[in-house]
Write a structure and sequence with these properties.
Chains A, B: This is TetR/AcrR family transcriptional regulator. 2 copies of one chain form a homodimer. By secondary structure, chain A is mainly α. Helix content of chain A is 73%, strand content 0%. Chain A is built from 10 helices and no strands. The first copy, chain A, is elongated and about 60 Å long. Chain A binds a DNA duplex through helix 1, helix 2 and helix 3.
Chain lengths: 216, 216
DNA sequence: GGCGAAACTAGAACACAATTTCATATCTCA
DNA sequence: TGAGATATGAAATTGTGTTCTAGTTTCGCC
């Protein structure tokens, strides 16, 4: 019964009951966030809702931010899973890259628009300095990038990495700006769309393939 | 002596002494942030350091975030002012766009690298939902965009707006990722550089000038 | 040169949640 | 079945932004 000085229980080592408890925690958080946002509930509420004691919750997650980040990760995976599923169903090369990517970014933006509390949460986690939250954010990014890499599979290496980063950046930036009430949701759609079209326009991709100005 | 229910004193209406007091507050905050970051001091410390009573500070700024945001804005303006000054000295068209912009972004990144506490602060303010902090952030963005607009003056409208947004986004995204310990400072330089070169490459700019695939 | 209102000061008091603690109950499995 | 690890529930702790109080200063104005 050491005090809670150590890292949270790692998922690998958990018994079935513990995994279930962990699951109940994250599910409760996802629900609470969906209902009214991450600021509107306390850890106590999470405990009540999940049926896991408050002290116990802290054996599973190092902080509220950590828990929130994992919940965010969960929610986001649901979204990308759907995108991937649709993508697999349709088959790959039917549509040009620009449209494929736009389809994805628009879905993501619509998702955040419909569930604005998750947009707020995303921004919060995006900039959390809690190391465990940060780790969960890495996971989210990886997942996101994986989807993009799939959509960009037939784009040459060099422009692909740049374009992917640019699109992801613009998306996050626009989202942040929207969440903090510095632009409208229409602006978000517009900026992302324009960027995707600009950065992935066929003639530009072709031009970039061999380009290699030294980077310094 | 009404309670502090109302908006903070507006700068326009202040007497000389009040402006001085406000100045002492922001200066104290800039110093404190420079020394050890925004999380390491309390409002009480700001009061002590500035010689302004705590309660009075709250007549000038609605919240700690508000005060921090204004301090950030101040610090950032110093940086951009220097850039603009150098730019004016050299005259405009001497260097190609890509190099002009890279010069600017690299300076900015180096500034944040040298004063990492301000990078942390920027990220904090960037996502603050406090309306007054948000307002100050708008100011920062405007200032930044103004610099970029100057550097991009000879780029045609349509690609200019897109490129500017892309560069700003990638810069903020990379900075955020660095601050939250999800990439190295070298990555930041690299990503921004690659983006600038890609997005502002002369042949691409030319190609984009007339392009207008419908957006809806 | 004194009045009154508004602004300032010092510092105590408050609010509010995250986090920790602990005594007790409950599992788990040899 | 019993020892040790885990979980529970509720209360205690903590840190800090923000507000409040009571006394003091400032300043325009008659």
């Amino acid at each position: 019964m050491l005090p809670n000085t150590s890292a949270p229980l790692s998922v690998e080592v958990m018994t079935g009951g513990q995994l279930a408890r962990r699951e109940r925690l994250t599910r409760a958080v996802v629900d609470l966030v969906a209902e009214s946002g991450a600021d509107s509930f306390q850890m106590k509420d999470v405990a009540d809702r999940s049926g896991v004691a408050l002290g116990t919750a802290y054996r599973y997650f190092a902080s509220k931010d950590h828990l929130l980040a994992v919940a965010m990760s969960e929610w986001q995976r649901r979204l990308t899973d759907r995108v991937i599923a649709d993508f697999d169903r349709r088959g790959v090369p039917a549509v040009p890259v620009v449209e494929r990517v736009l389809d994805y970014t628009n879905r993501e933006i619509r998702g955040f628009q419909r569930h604005a509390h998750f947009a707020g949460l995303m921004v919060r986690i995006y900039t959390s300095t809690d190391p465990f939250a940060s780790e969960a954010m890495r996971e989210i990014s990886r997942n996101n990038s994986a989807v993009m890499e799939r959509l960009l599979a037939d784009v040459p290496d060099r422009p692909r990495a740049i374009a992917r980063n640019a699109v992801e950046s613009v998306l996050m930036h626009a989202l942040t700006t929207w969440v903090t009430d510095r632009c409208t949701i229409a602006d978000v759609f517009e900026r992302v769309t324009a960027t995707v079209q600009y950065v992935l326009a066929p003639e530009r991709l072709a031009a970039a393939t061999g380009a290699g100005t030294t980077t310094g």
